[in-house]
């Protein structure tokens, strides 16, 4: 099921060393079903807190989160999946075993089939038997991505999934991700510091500032997109201007 999300009036504060930090202050945002929303903002503005609140890893202090399907009907408990900056694979398990954990409710044959499909999708065939220590950084991150999507979540939350990679590996993975987005057909939130990545991948990019969405930009370009495409430039310029002001 493709699930949209409405966030309304979300507040979240932390007590830290005698002072109160409030990364989300009356925060509202609509995540449309099947679309990728990129979230940009200065370091410490509350991007990761937002993902944690959506996923329930952090409890919100106030506000409402509701999920709905493509017809606008309420969805009670959507399947969520998180992908982090580092792939967080279990080092004592093979790639196949790491992926298997996310779909352990499925029968063995179906599990194997799904693992093959998802590794094909992230362009990493024939690595099932390898341990994480035998993978390059880019390969490990692809496996992390595969683990995020293998259970076919309704909502995929991506916290800077490409940022720890070197420029070449990151660009290749971003381009590959752009190509598989349609096949995934999920609602996604992508936290990033990278304006070019936001323009390449998102349907909408939002800027977080002072606990709220300060700007929303619809990236109205067909997908998949390619780095170097001239049509990306005006959007990149707009986003850079927000960053610099
Ligand atoms: N568990 C916590 N306890 C206390 N303060 C916290 C906690 N989690 C986050 N914060 C504070 O909340 C603010 C927002 O943090 P958050 O990690 O959401 O920012 P971010 O925008 O994701 O930052 P970055 O871009 O650097 O990753 C920061 O000031 C941070 O110190």
TrEMBL record:
Keywords: ATP-binding, Cell membrane, Membrane, Nucleotide-binding, Transport. Gene3D superfamilies: P-loop containing nucleotide triphosphate hydrolases. GO terms for molecular function: ATP binding; ATP hydrolysis activity. Coiled coil: none annotated. Pfam families: ABC_tran. Residues 5-235 form the ABC transporter domain. Transmembrane segments: none annotated. This is ABC transporter, ATP-binding protein. It comes from Parasutterella excrementihominis YIT 11859.
């Amino acid at each position: 099921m493709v699930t949209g999300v409405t966030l309304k009036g979300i507040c979240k504060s932390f007590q830290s060393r005698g002072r109160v930090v409030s990364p989300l202050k009356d925060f509202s945002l609509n995540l449309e079903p099947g679309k990728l929303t990129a979230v940009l903002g200065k370091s410490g503005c509350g991007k990761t807190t937002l993902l944690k609140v959506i996923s329930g890893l952090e409890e919100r202090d106030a506000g409402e989160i509701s999920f709905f399907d493509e017809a606008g009907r309420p969805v009670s408990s959507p399947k969520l999946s998180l992908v982090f900056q580092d792939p967080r694979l279990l080092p004592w398990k093979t790639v196949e075993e790491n992926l298997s954990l996310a779909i352990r409710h499925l029968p063995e044959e179906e599990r194997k089939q799904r693992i093959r499909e998802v590794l094909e999708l992230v362009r990493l065939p024939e690595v099932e038997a390898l341990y994480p220590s035998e993978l390059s950084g880019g390969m490990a991150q692809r496996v992390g991505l595969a683990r995020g999507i293998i259970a076919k979540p309704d909502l995929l939350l991506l916290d800077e999934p490409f940022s720890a990679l070197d420029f070449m590996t990151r660009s290749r993975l971003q381009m590959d991700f752009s190509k598989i987005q349609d096949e995934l057909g999920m609602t996604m939130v992508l936290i990033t510091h990278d304006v070019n990545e936001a323009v390449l991948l998102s349907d909408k990019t939002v800027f977080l500032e002072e606990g709220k969405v300060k700007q929303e930009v619809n990236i109205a370009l067909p997908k998949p997109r390619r780095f170097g495409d001239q049509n990306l430039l005006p959007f990149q310029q707009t986003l850079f201007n927000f960053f610099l002001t």
